[in-house]
Amino acid sequence: MARAERLSEAPDPLDALAEWTRQAVRHFSTLRGLVGILARSMYDEGTPSHEMCGAMHESGATLLRTAPKAGRVRAALSPDELFDLLTGVGWVRENSPADRDRSDRLLKLILEGLATGSDV
Length: 120
Description:
The structure is a single chain. This protein has 120 residues and is mainly alpha-helical. It has one domain. 68% of the residues lie in helices and 0% in strands. It contains 6 helices and no strands. It starts with a helix and ends in a 6-residue tail after the last helix. It comes from Actinomadura spongiicola. InterPro entries: Tet_transcr_reg_TetR-rel_C_sf, TetR_SbtR-like_C.
């Protein structure tokens, strides 16, 4: 959340969103099983980490809302969809052998698909 706040001041909102998503995926996939726990916690108010997941979700949503306003990202992606995409990429990272981890490439392809007329 602190990183998202710092990145909100970045000159290029797409670069800020890309950096935040890379860090979020690393965080999601730090420990085996964490991706699933965080995904469930986001939508289950009864879990201990629900509030923190909601705050992290909102920090990414703020960066996501800024990018289309600057013409850097298509407006079609919702914050919930962004969270779902990051959960998927985190799962790939968490479950890939270290020498076959292609999660960075997958995330780059997703961001390129969202970008408007530029590289990520």
